[in-house]
Amino acid sequence: MDAPSVVLAFAIITLLFSAGVLSVFIQGARLARKKNTFSCEQCGNCCRLRTIQLSKDDITRMEKGGLQNFYETAGGEARIKRIKGRCVFLDAGGSCSVYDIRPEVCRRFPFFTLFGIPYCRHASFCPGVENLQKCLKKAQ
Ligand code: SF4
Ligand code: SF4
Question: How far is the CA of 101 from the centre of ligand 2 (A)?
Fold first, then answer.
């Protein structure tokens, strides 16, 4: 392949990748507009399948709530400890044992703000998000 062909191929790949990222972002922003219809099905998957990052405010609130030795740091981030792949605070019945003082990311999941725009994470493990996607498809 000559140099102009390589540049053209690279440009096409970059364009397709950017279009893919943009499409995912637009879809997430559209899902976020349906936030009021989101219903958590209490499956607990978000407590089993995610790493829960903690802000300084989370740590302060949780320590004030009497918790100790509940997080570890990696790559400069504080994260809730996990046991057998699950958050240490997920109880045997599948409920959060620290619900009133749980971290901010747990309160917001699956909704976030990305570049200042409300965004819903495409979490295939979350039946609530799956339902939102079905609603969105029906409305189209
Ligand atoms: S994964 Fe989704 S539906 Fe399941 S508990 Fe978390 S937010 Fe609720
Ligand atoms: S703190 Fe509670 S809500 Fe957050 S991941 Fe752990 S069990 Fe789930």
Answer: 10
Whether 102 is in the pocket of ligand 2, judged by its Cβ within 6 Å, is yes
Contact 121, 28 (CB under 8 A): yes
Residue 12, judged by CB atoms within 10 A of its CB (0-12, 13-18, 19+), counts as exposed
What gap in Å lies between CA 83 and CA 70, rounded to an integer?
11
Which segments of the chain are extended strands (E)? 53-54, 71-74, 77-80, 82-83, 86-87, 111-114, 117-120
Nearest residue (by CA) to ligand 1, atom 4, is 43
Q: Which residues on neighbouring strands pair with residue 118, listed in sequence order?
A: 113
Taking CA atoms only, the protein residue closest to ligand 2 atom 5 is: 47
pTM, rounded to two decimals: 0.82
Per-residue pLDDT of 14-35, as tens digits, reads 776 666 668 878 889 999 999 9
